[in-house]
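Regression test attached.
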Amino acid sequence: MPRPNAVTSSAMDAPLADDASLMLAWVGGDAAAFKVLYARHKDPLYRFLLKTAKDRTQADELFQETWARVIAARDRYRPEAKFSTWLLQIAHNLAIDGFRRQKPLATSDEADAIFANQAAPEREQPEQALSEFELRRRMQQAIESLPDDQRETFVLRMEYELSLEDIAAITGVGRETAKSRLRYAMARIKQWFA
Amino acid sequence: MNPNTPPPSDDDLPDEQELAALYARLPRAEPDTALDAAVLAAAERAVPSRSTPARRRSRWPVALGSAAVLVLAVGVGWQLRNAPIRDPLSERAEKLAAPAPVPAAAPPAAAESEPVSTPAAPPKLAAPAVGARLARDQARTTAAANKATPQRPAIVAQAKVFSAPMAPPEALPAPAPAAPPAPPAPPAPPAAIDPAPASADALRDAQPAPAPAEEAMYGFNGHTATERRADTPVMSAAPAPMTQGAIAAKPMVAGLAPDDRVGEIRRLLDQGNRAEALRKLAELRRLYPAYDLPQDLRDLKP
């Protein structure tokens, strides 16, 4: 999985620039710099929001709102911070607000109960090799069953390969909290495939 | 623990790699094109493209404005450079010092008021021209007076009055000897001249301009020529308007001519009135020093 901040875009003729340079160029009036930045980060961000929001409509709304926030706050961007971290922080805050508007935030205990009561025919048939479709469906369901905080942490880890420090900075918690959330998330998912 | 095995990173979690592999199998969802267009449009609205032509356009008004100001300044400076320098104080001084201009056909009212918008140059030029004209007119008047009757001296007296304090007509028969040259006399006004054909011709020659205006020009306190003639004191040594040559050729005085005087002197001698004859002879010599006396009178001794 390519890193989000890796320079892979071919939109610019000049030597590929990092995210900070593109951001500064765009703020300076270079519209092409934003297009490159957007192309580089739009897919991972969308997948993160899609898995965090659990449905496509909400994901689309969060996605558009996230970029709108980026545009509005462009003057406050500081090149010392990673653009991907700054982008995901915005997306995270919007997602949390969405979670709170839609339904109560599911705690870890409640998620365990739901998981325990969930029918899992695949789990009852471990000897049968799961098809590809089934693997993807189970994974999707496993992620969707995670509590919001664990889910978010797990997706950030899987989608962006971020360090615990980065995840902690994005979600606004300490490193150990981020680590604990990730450990618990992984444990729950593995149970879907045990 | 195997010392050759690197210690597990605190960041590494068990079974993470397997889960990452499973996660990678999930569909790679992407935003649709409409969503992309919406985001890109919002970015363009917020930060319009600032290309090089726009930067150039922003400088054009400044450059044009600076060029316009420069052209205007140069134009104004050029106009001021060519404009004549006017000094209000010097112009006013010139107006006060210059004599009244000579209007060719100005009404009396205009003569009484100050000359309005009269430039300094014309009055200065008018004075010498007037002087030359006066001299010319004086010469004509002298020639006309020599041919005229005894009334003509009145015309000459009028001409003399304008030039300098002159003797009244009564004192004119006694001409001043060796009078210094007099300033040119202005032509006499027609109102004060006796209506004689010859004198009228002389007057016409001597007065090309209307009298009232010239009266005002020469400004003799509003007196008429007749009044001036009467008021003029007797001055035996008054300068005559005529030259010395004119006096020697034909004295313009009343009385006997030199030839007649010679006859009178001889009569007195025949009568035996030698004293009176000598007195008359002395008078003849005094009045007509250049007269060529006959031999008998030249030899006559007191």
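Expected vs. actual: identical. The interface with chain A takes residues 10-11, 13-16, 18-20, 22-31, 35-36, 38-40, 42-44, 46-50 of chain B (CB under 8 Å).
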